[in-house]
Write a structure and sequence with these properties.
The structure is a homodimer of 326-residue chains. With 326 residues, chain A is α/β, with parallel strands linked by helices. Helices cover 45% and strands 15% of the residues of chain A. Chain A has a six-stranded parallel beta sheet, with helices on both faces. The relative contact order of chain A is 0.12.
């Protein structure tokens, strides 16, 4: 026999030892609550299984309280886990805010735009969280032209900053990684990245180059580009000069390849995947749960008509998780 | 320049000189639209040859073409990726079948049941795919008592087989792993698993024990149980007898721990995670995309009234992915 007890905002407040107003603030305007209190309230919400009553809210607001996000078709192993972690964070944040998340897949931008139309018609969605923004992305202007509320995880590469977005400061990640290696005495530090043209990949290269240049070091011949993968990374790492002592990589997959091809050299990955944790790879970690919570918060501001007149852009700092490889 | 050739609700809205919402109303709740507007929208629908899609289907069939699945709160690294891969497969299969997937989180069974109630009320869901079935699971009987269509990924441990389910044959996975080690000449093969009481964990232990017994080998003192994790696995692996030469593990996390604690010994993991691929760990692979597609197929059979009179149970065979560690 299962008894479903009614957990109310008062129950949460009592458990967390705060006022009901504070609980409400954590749900609706988390930025006004101190981080420590926020965590305590969120822990109470999770442990009590508190859910904002959806049906009641929909009646009050005339909204479906349903948002949509794309999930990649299939799953590509090491790197796919980044968007999966963002999805977990987004679902948690949406649940806290009383929203549900609907998934869709799309083969390309045109297919995704056709899907928006279908979803808006069939399911009366409130808004979208877009991921994997890129140069020449047509999705944001389509949604903006139709006044559909949306937020992107990823800045509008090359397009005007007319919508709200959250991104992680990729340059800062590789800059910190490179500085860490410089501090350890390395001078011949390479960058193993992706072919030019990807906003994220180019930003990660820029951070490394900036740290090297600031240290007065020559980067000629120290940047190698390859399609992401462990095997491709190992192959490409063989192209570095022999006197190289350390490598900053654009992904953990490439870092694994570099470790295999260049034993004994210091290696730093990017994304702090489960693989990095498992094998002791030093890696740059993206604050994905935080990014997801911020996206959800910006979207609910838009939906509640509480958004500031101008769009909001948030660039979150990554952190370096130091383990054994550097 | 993106051209979406499909005639959409937006095209109809533009032609009729009304908002998208009005078109949607004409399709779903025509009684709220003025007669003159209704006629103009219907004329636009006819002249454009607009194929009323999901919304109209829902009106006709009384179904939302929406199914729900739980996503775990947070993400626990190595092993969490198994359910993420199932989710990717389920979304792909649902899209092919013309369904969308809605996500929810739940702290425990009672919270999940309360969520069912909320979802069924607020979003008119067609059915559920349940994951992580376990002994004493109250969720299936709750749904069955209310005639809500559902399929489980995971057999009904201990409960009657009254609903359709898909599972992976865990016993067969560790049996194959153990036979692989026996064939390579190992005789002192341990099992590193989870504490008794978990259906999946016990089944994985059973497969190992069956292979050992069939080979006429004594298993006394060769089974060690611990809470899942790399560090806990390493600690527990120290409890094996010194003459042990190989270990079959209930997860890749435990296998990583065993590799660290018992260098030089043969180790086989379970779940074939990205970590296994990255470090060359031999591991048992679950056919997750296949399992997801089968779940979706069984659910659509139920929803379309095409299901056989008795429920269907599918036990899919895992496969052993042989790499460097065994």
């Amino acid at each position: 026999m299962i008894t479903v007890e009614k957990v109310t905002i008062a129950t949460v407040a009592e458990r967390a030892g705060v006022s009901r107003q504070t609980v409400s603030n954590v749900i609706n305007t988390p930025e006004v609550v101190r981080a420590e209190t926020r965590e305590r309230v969120r822990a109470a919400i999770t442990s009590l299984g508190y859910r904002v009553n959806q049906a009641a809210r929909q009646m009050r607001t005339g909204r479906s309280r349903l948002i949509a996000v794309r999930i990649e078709s299939g799953s590509d192993g090491i790197n796919g886990s980044v968007l999966d972690r963002f999805l977990h964070g987004l679902t948690d944040a949406a649940t806290l805010a009383g929203y549900r998340v609907m998934l869709y897949t799309a083969a390309d931008d045109a297919d995704e735009i056709a899907t928006y139309d279908d979803l808006l018609t069939a399911h009366d969605l409130d808004g979208f969280v877009l991921t994997s923004t890129h140069h020449g992305d047509p999705r944001t202007s389509w949604l903006a032209a139709r006044d559909v509320p949306f937020v992107t995880f990823g800045r509008p590469w090359g397009a005007p900053d007319t919508h709200s977005w959250v991104d992680v400061d990729n340059d800062a990640g590789t800059l910190a990684a490179t500085k860490h290696l410089l501090k350890a005495g390395h001078r011949r530090i390479g960058f193993l990245g992706w072919p030019r043209g990807s906003g994220v990949g180019d930003a990660r290269r820029t951070g490394w180059a900036a740290a090297m240049t600031a240290a007065g070091l020559d980067v000629t011949g120290l940047s190698v580009a390859v399609i992401d993968g462990v095997d491709s990374g190992a192959e490409a790492a063989g192209r570095f000069p022999d006197d190289l002592t350390a490598v900053v990589c654009a992904s953990d997959s490439l870092a694994l390849g570099a470790l295999r091809a260049l034993p004994g050299r210091a290696v730093i990955g990017f994304d702090d995947t489960a693989v990095a944790h498992a094998i002791g790879l030093t890696s740059v970690s993206q604050p994905l749960a935080e990014a997801a919570a911020r996206c959800m918060h910006l979207l609910t501001e838009l939906l509640d008509g509480r958004a500031p007149a101008t769009s909001t852009q948030l660039l979150l700092p990554p952190s370096l998780v130091v383990r054994q490889t550097a």
